[in-house]
C-alpha cells in the first residue's frame, strides 16, 4: 500500500512525517498542497476518511483561517473547497492517508498505524520475547 502525504512548505511536522516514512521504508507519494492544489476528489476523499469532518482538518489557529472570519459550518462542500484552493494553509499538515487510514498532523505513536500489520505483529513478538528474557 502506498501512503499519500499532503504537505506544506516550511512545515516541520511534514518533514518529520516524511523522514519517518523513509526510515520505515513505507512507499509514499507527496503532494505539496501549497504548490499543487487539491482536486475536489482528493478533498472529498480526505473528508470522507475523517471522524470529525472539517474540525479535524482545518487549522483554526492559522492566520489564513483567522483572517477570513467565516463560519465554515455554514459553507457548502464546494464553497469550502474553493476557499481551501485560495487558502491552502487553512489545512492542517501533514495529512497522511492510504486506502483505510488517515492521520492529520504528526504524532510519533499514531503514525505507526501505517506500518503493515505483519511487521507490527513481528515487532511485538520480538519485544515480548526480550521482555520475558529479562
From TrEMBL:
- Pfam families referenced in this protein's UniProt entry, alphabetically: ArsC (PF03960)
InterPro entries (alphabetical): Arsenate_reductase-like, Thioredoxin-like_sf, Tscrpt_reg_Spx/MgsR
Gene3D superfamilies per UniProt = Glutaredoxin
Transmembrane ranges? none
Please give the family membership noted in the entry. Answer: Belongs to the ArsC family.
What name is this protein filed under? Spx/MgsR family RNA polymerase-binding regulatory protein
Recorded source organism is Lysinibacillus composti
Amino acid at each position: 500500500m502506498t501512503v499519500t502525504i499532503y504537505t506544506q512548505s516550511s512545515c516541520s511536522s511534514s518533514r518529520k512525517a516524511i523522514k519517518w516514512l523513509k526510515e520505515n521504508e513505507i512507499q509514499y507519494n507527496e503532494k505539496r498542497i501549497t504548490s499543487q492544489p487539491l482536486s475536489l476528489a482528493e478533498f472529498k476523499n480526505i473528508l470522507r476518511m475523517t471522524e470529525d469532518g472539517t474540525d479535524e482538518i482545518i487549522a483554526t489557529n492559522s492566520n489564513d483561517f483567522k483572517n477570513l472570519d467565516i463560519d465554515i459550518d455554514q459553507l457548502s462542500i464546494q464553497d469550502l473547497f474553493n476557499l481551501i484552493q485560495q487558502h491552502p494553509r487553512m489545512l492542517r499538515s501533514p495529512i497522511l492517508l492510504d486506502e483505510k487510514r488517515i492521520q492529520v498532523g504528526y504524532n510519533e505513536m499514531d503514525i505507526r498505524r501505517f506500518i503493515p500489520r505483519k511487521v507490527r505483529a513481528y515487532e511485538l513478538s520480538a519485544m515480548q520475547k526480550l521482555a520475558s528474557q529479562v
